[in-house]
Design goal:
Radius of gyration: 21 Å
Largest sheet: 5 strands, parallel
CATH superfamily: SGNH hydrolase
CATH topology: Rossmann fold
Structural class: alpha/beta
Strand order of the largest sheet: 2-1-3-5-7
CATH class: Alpha Beta
Helix content: 40-55%
Distance between the termini: 77 Å
CATH architecture: 3-Layer(aba) Sandwich
Shape: globular
Length: 298
């Protein structure tokens, strides 16, 4: 019996030791990962490294629409695009409050699309597990949206990092690094057959949790004297009235925020060749859009 107990204790010791070693090594690699232009490294840069004057938040629409170099060249201010595919307002709050712990930006640009304010993308927060334990603001939001079983699992480094090593090692061994400050342009499709789709009304359902995180960001910007700018980036899906754009407009007016609505801008929706798909600009469209945005901002 004593031998069995001793053997079990040895196995437990090995597992615990391996877990601690994996946590220490992987955590260090994540904090020091270079930006190679993929979602995971962009997020790591925004959470742990960048200190730009302008921080861009949002989903894929933000990430593929705002060309940081155009903003930097025009305004003479540093900029980082922290938008990420398939994430909602909870992700924006994670990045914003983690960023704020080491640097206070002058301007935060928050691009809002319907999926950011709905409950559809909360399952995608599991993509943030690999950063758990490295950022207190991120930990708080992950914990708020996890059940007790998931919280227990997250205590294990082996669990948190089980889908991490491939992209992390690739990022560390690659010889090329991204130089677009988080912006990831979409390819130009010369044979596009897109055309604008018009709708008269859109059913808006705001998730309480997403709205809560939006309010957290707004109040923190106000408290820290950070200019918060809301945007709705160009799309070929055009809602003429009673849509999300109207909701954002009302929210901005109520809270004295600047809001730029490009969703109904004919300069874009009348030119499908500027789009990669129905809701994302391509590289040419993003450059034109960013130039127009900067002119408005000036």
């Amino acid at each position: 019996m004593k031998k069995r107990i001793g053997f079990i204790l040895i196995i437990i010791g090995i597992v615990v030791g391996a877990d601690l070693l994996v946590g220490a090594v992987t955590g260090k690699l994540i904090r020091e990962v270079p930006d190679v232009g993929v979602n995971q490294t962009n997020t790591a840069q925004a959470l742990f490294a960048r200190t730009a004057d302008i921080l861009i938040l949002g989903s894929s629409r933000a990430n593929h629409s705002f060309d940081c170099k155009v903003i930097e060249d025009s305004l003479g201010m540093s900029c980082y695009n922290a938008g990420r595919d398939g994430q909602n307002m909870a992700y924006d709050a994670m990045v914003f409050f983690s960023y704020l712990e080491r640097h206070k930006p002058l301007i935060v640009i928050l691009d809002i699309v319907d999926s950011q304010l709905s409950n559809r993308w909360f399952d995608n927060l599991k993509e943030m597990n690999c950063y758990y334990g490295l950022s207190k603001p991120l930990d708080r939001i992950v914990d708020d949206n996890s059940n007790w079983i998931e919280k227990i699992k997250l205590k294990s480094n082996l669990y948190r990092y089980n889908n991490t090593w491939q992209w992390l090692l690739n990022a560390h061994i690659t010889e090329s690094q991204a130089e677009r400050d988080g912006f990831r342009p979409m390819p130009v499709n010369a044979r596009t057959n897109f055309k604008a789709s018009f709708h008269n009304k859109e059913n808006i359902k705001i998730d309480k949790r997403c709205f809560h995180y939006l309010e957290e960001i707004r109040k923190a910007c106000d408290k820290n004297h950070i200019q918060l700018i809301l945007t709705y980036t160009p799309s070929l899906v055009v809602v003429k009235n009673s849509g999300l754009e109207d909701w954002i407009d009302a929210y901005a007016k109520k809270n004295n925020l600047t809001y730029y609505d490009f969703g109904r801008d004919a300069e874009f929706y009348e030119h499908p060749e500027l789009f990669y798909d129905m809701t994302h600009l391509n590289a040419i469209g993003a450059k034109l859009f960013t130039k127009k945005f900067v002119q408005n901002l000036k």
